[in-house]
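Re: folding output
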Amino acid sequence: MRGVMSARELCQALGISQATLSRILRSASNDVVAVGRGRSTRYAVLRTISGVPRDIPMFDIDEKGVAQRTGTLNALYGGAVWVQRNESGELYEGIPFFLDDMRPQGFLGRAFARNNPDLELPERITDWSEDHVIRALTARGDDTIGNAIIGEGSFQRFLETAAAAIEPIPIGIQGTSFDNLAKQATEGQPPGSSAGGERPKFTAYAELAGGGAAQVLVKFSPPYDSDVGQRWSDLLVCEAIAADVLSESAIPAARTHILRTDERTHLIVERFDRVGARGRRAVISLGALDDYYFGNRDNYTLAAARLERTGRVSAQNAATIRLIHCFGLLIGNTDMHFGNVSFFPEGNARYRLSPIYDMLPMLYSPVNDQLVEREFICPALPIQAIESWDSAFCLAILCWQRVAANPDISEGFKVLVNANEQKLARMRESSARSVDVSLHNRPAASA
């Protein structure tokens, strides 16, 4: 069956008159949605996904852990999706962009089908259709990224979890607990939600060294007894250092903590889409935003310009994105994909930058569990971010200085990156002249 069609297209396709079509639409009113108004009205037929009720309720969980019904989602013939909120509805070509980040993905997502065989999903998430994603989210989507839940099944699971007592993992036993949870994750039973990312990880509710407790995402290295394990340990410490450098410069970054055990290194990241034991916050990735509004996915600097130009983000947020793009290039982050920047929705299609995360020198990451030694070559920085260059150089140089001084970084890695600080200092000096010339030659603003 075809997708969304106008009355004229329907009459032509069915070979009927407008009057006959009107009678059909009235008799099938419970199975048809009208999109738009007046002459621009189009029609679509509701469909049922296998194993999923036709009308899929939508819920949001607030920062206190309280659920609120927000609307209804319906799949349509032709692949589109209809979202009804109060008296208004909106049509999407597929899964709505504000739900897209909820889909199982990355390391944790790959275990989803194996751990939920009753849903009869393809084992590889790369083989999933949109229907598979909706089936997964409506049945087991009670603890995904952000604060949304769809489907009665997932909502019931949330209510059952919310009614159960939850105690944070005490600091005194986190070493043993996290080592055990890491082992479970590597064996294909990752505890926790479907947070994205390719590296092994798990989620937990844990006490914090500074007091209190938080929902956390825990990344971990392989055991130290291999070169690959030591390298990932170094990289996780680098990620914590980079987050600290950014935070100290008033750039919001995820709060991180390093926990080293006799076996491996754990990077504990406080989740900014969670509040306390039960509360949640809505978040949306740069990838989901860019796909919906623009469809480019080129680089952070250009994406920031698009978002600012269309009024989606503030000028300050756009400037911060340009800065972190330059900073990432200068610390060898070769994995700045659009899932590694996120935003808090603020209403009226406006978004506020969330804390920065996943900022580390991925240039040095192992490939297929093998160390591949690469030389850090100072990258060309985007000219559109020229006003951020010097700040980015200062932050990156400080980051490399702290890597060299950190006792948790191996001597082998320190030797490998030893020259990076000097390379950046020389590049900063030469770039400063370019910046002076560029800013001096800018045309004056017209009156």
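--- second protein (sequence, then structure) ---
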Amino acid sequence: MKRTFAVDPWMIATHQFHPEDKRLQESLTAIGNGYMGMRGNFEEQYSGDQLLGTYLGGVWFPDKTRVGWWKNGYPAYFGKAINAPSFLPIRIKVNEQPVDLAKNSFRDFYLALDLHQGLLTRQFIYEGDQVEVRFEFQRFLSNVVKEAALINVKATVLSGKATITFDAGLEGRVANED
């Protein structure tokens, strides 16, 4: 059995990134506050396989049960969580080149979910054309103000010269996957 994360009572952490395990990592690093929840997707663009997910409590769709045959006790409908528009996307460019871990070279990957604090952190060193940049991300959903979320992104140029741009926005073209 392959171990994806280190074992710790209050921390889910890994220094490994395997694209084939991306959806599992997203599931295991999901955060929520009882009002909204979101999968552990990357903040920046990621062109590889992933399952985007931001969900709001109480927002659902009554989907007809598909069992192939009717059986006593099965409901006619079940509540399907609807994927809400995402406030997560931050398009990041280094010297006009998009940061995308499916396409770019990087090293020193780290992903952790502090279960005690509810803080999701991630960092890596982007390796571009004659430039290296450390990116650090933090994400938190507030329990005090249920509608509040924090995304903190820090970029540190380690070598070379870099112009770094951040373009944050909303992604409304979301869909559920059945």
